[in-house]
Amino acid sequence: MKEQLVLIGNGMAGVRLVEEILERDPERYAITIIGKECYPNYNRIMLSNVLQNKMTVDEIITNPYTWYEENNITLINEDPAVGVDAAKKLITTEKGLKVPYDKLVFATGSHPFILPIPGSQKDGVVAFRTIDDTAEMMEAAGKHKRAVVIGGGLLGLEAAKGLQLQGMDVTVVHLAKWLMETQLDERAGKMLQKDLEAQGLKFLLEHATTEILGEARVTGLRFKDGSTIETDLVVMSIGIRPAAELAREAGLEVNRGIVVNDFMETNLPEIYAIGECVEHDGKTYGLVAPLFEQGKVLADALTGIEAKPYQGSKTFTSLKVSGCDLYSAGNIMDTDGLQSIEAYDGVNGNYKKVFIKDNRIEGIVLYGETSDGNRYYNMMKKGQEIADLQSIAILQAAGEEAGSDDVVAWDDEETVCGCNGVTKGDIIRGIREKGLTNVAEVGKVTKAGTSCGKCKPQVQTLLEHELGEGVTASTGICSCTDLNRDQVMTQIYAKHLTTSADVFKELHFANPEGCAKCRPAVNFYLNVAFPTEHKDERQSRYVNERMHANIQKDGTFSVIPRMRGGQTNPQQLLQIAKVAEKYNVPLVKVTGSQRIGLYGVKKQDLPAIWKELDMVSSQAYAKAFRSVKTCVGKNFCRFGTQDSMGLGIKLEERFEFIDTPHKFKVGVSACPRSCVESGVKDFGIICVENGYQIYIGGNGGTEVKEAQLLTTVETEAEVIEYCGALLQYYRETGIYAERTAPWMERLGFEAVKHILSDASKRKDLIEALDVATAAKRKDPWHEVVGDRDIQEKLYSIDRRELVTVGD
């Protein structure tokens, strides 16, 4: 017989615990869940989106009834537990059911706090906690015009904005001097108020409500100073209280909440508790991420896995109300020993404040520009010392770009989704072990991106890094805008926008700084649109392109010098060997593109290695024209019909260092045997007796796409001409991060062929390519080796160790 595991509470924390148990040992328990509401488990955080007409109730259901059935879970719904006999291990529900247990988990959550003032029970007074509360608010908005939200905290402001979008005249009443006083300091709170007032919300701060007026239904409020306000609806959003009454009656130790130890055990055997109802080390939590962390600890303990003790959580708050972005984490109160670093940009409405104690981050407040939030939060969680970071740039490493949030470079234990406590490692393991291929699948398995959604671009970046061309590119830019690639490009040309900042401002991107997904895309589009006016924004490129090297899983890098056409000589081989030996390179390998790669190189060694190699980069890390793979050709092979290696070298010399929407691979085979797999290259050449067959749109990778025959030409010059024309047409019409195979499917092969078959159009495209790349086709490592500032800033090199061409 399986042990009977009973969960009291069908909310987010409890059901997440059950999911964690099923993940570890699905056959261990017979599980029963007892719930109070008449719904299956849903995402309470998304209620504000329902109120704001962004989502429906069905869309916020995270575990439908079929999930309970599929996992053989007994759900007792709309029948709350009212009694627990710990001696008999028996639970009694409101409707009289008797439910035995072997192990019992309290996940009863919390109650919304209702002010104990006259009139609080009148019709039209509601909390904002459940689906039913939300439905009542929306129904009231359809009948009435005025609403008051009591409470200027996170949930209260989201409720206020939602009611305003429902057509109501909304006033927020708040007891404190500024909004969200427990998460924001005064300056940030006042900035938030100003922005929300500009959107039509009204505020009464430092007002204490003493009475709710009206007969059967609310008609107004009276305040402590004697003033009043008329209203048809009152929403109470002034905090929560742990729902611990049942636990206290059962004999559990209860202070503010149910007292638990580091393994979520209560004072009674076989009874556990997690979520908003518990008190751990004197603290209670009302945010989701800590509750999920507790669930992982308890799931380990209940399935016989050695559990790491729960040590409490560092919490954060992220809010976006109609364009107002804020981020808060940790301790932001000016207590003894707490110092701060502050930066205020009154022109753009941005504010950053980092609280420091003992050389470590203790708290964070960001308003306006919040892209640094995850970086600061992870520094705080790890207890990272900040002595070597620049305070003037708000704890930004020397030379590091502001807002640098390339998730690929993060450690696995760093948090990507703060709402749900999901780390980079959780996402990577899900992609690798469960074959996840899109953001929705990652969200379903790990919960990343299923709450506020701000981390979705980072999840997409991890998918693209892990799966490459296995990820289908979206036709849109990112979550910052509804505009797709063509619409963005049209506006760039029409309004003559020449910087990313101009694009984000003029096209009304939700994030005025862009995000990790749209910044590199917009930078590329500007490079294509106005190559002579737009200055490439290095800080917008992904980490590999900023560092000019592929970052590896352990944080080291690869060095892959270019060997045009795959050809090398003894001097190059000797030099590579000397460098590999001198710098203790752990792996030297022939790459798939017939180059020799050095792997495991330390970041600070990169400039010196490139200087000593005295070779140019193959750009194996870039969205650009890559190396040309060739066979030995007719000069050595008895089957060869043309000089494939010589043509490959000419192609590389002509087009190397040219940026493209995605990597652009070329192969030249000297005969139809196609030893270099020309048929799965973006641009493939198969040499025949009478010339060169040109194939386009082939891709290898997780989804192999066979290239299609474009034409057959007689001369090498024609091959190079077609290649240049294809490159520029792809640059001008491709979606950033879109390989040529899906690009050609989107445009249609015949349409692409029609363009490239026109000699005058090819000439125009090549001229445009030459103009666009004239000043930008250069080896990036030559610049790095010759610039001491870049070495010091990007590669963290001590000035005594800097190298230059003349050394």
Automatic annotation (TrEMBL):
Residues given in the record as [4Fe-4S] cluster binding sites: C631, C637, C671, C675
Record key words, sorted: 2Fe-2S, 4Fe-4S, FAD, Flavoprotein, Heme, Iron, Iron-sulfur, Metal-binding, Nitrate assimilation, Oxidoreductase
UniProt GO MF annotations: 2 iron, 2 sulfur cluster binding; 4 iron, 4 sulfur cluster binding; flavin adenine dinucleotide binding; heme binding; metal ion binding; NADP binding; nitrite reductase activity
UniProt cofactor note: Binds 1 siroheme per subunit. Binds 1 [4Fe-4S] cluster per subunit.
All copies of domain BFD-like [2Fe-2S]-binding, residue ranges: 416-464, 477-526
Database matches in PANTHER family: NITRITE REDUCTASE (NADH) LARGE SUBUNIT (PTHR43809)
Protein's recorded name: Nitrite reductase (NADH) large subunit
Source organism of this protein record: Trichococcus ilyis
Lineage of producing organism: Bacteria, Bacillati, Bacillota, Bacilli, Lactobacillales
